Amino acid sequence: MPNRDQELNPHRDADRDRASVVAVSQLRQRGIDVDESESSDALATLLSAVERFESAVSALGGDRMVHSLDTDEHDDESLVLPRRRADEGVGEYARRVAQAADGLTQRPGAGPRTRTS
Asked: How would you write 13-62 as a 3-class SS string?
């Protein structure tokens, strides 16, 4: 017997599955080891934390390509996304990435950038 959520939104599970696939793809493109077996909520939280970190790096003038996980030579290690430890759950890793993003936003010069023409 379907539950009330399934009656209200019969496609919810399929939508979550698609969202998980998209999040996994985007995280893997950034060099982060994740898979579809992770919860969709945890993946969304991690992707959000990673995007916040990347925004903080950009606000400091950092280049995502120069500071990627795939590159061994970084001019500022604090601008490199923290690596996920082998024994680290997605939720724990997301918290660590969010903390790193918070640390970057506290640095001088991390205010919002404005474009000048």
From this structure: HHHHHHHHHHHHHHHHHCCCCCCCCCCHHHHHHHHHHHHHHHHHHHHCCC
Ramachandran angles phi, psi of 7, nearest 5°: -70, -40
76-98 core/surface letters (b: 16 or more CB in 10 A; e: else): eeebbbbebeeeeebeebbebbb
Burial class (CB in 10 A: 0-12, 13-18, 19+), 104: buried
Structure tokens at 24: 């996994």
pTM for the complete prediction?
Answer: 0.76
What's the start-to-end Cα distance of the chain, in Å?
Answer: 61
pLDDT tens-digit map of 39-84: 889 999 999 999 999 999 888 887 665 556 556 665 678 888 999 9
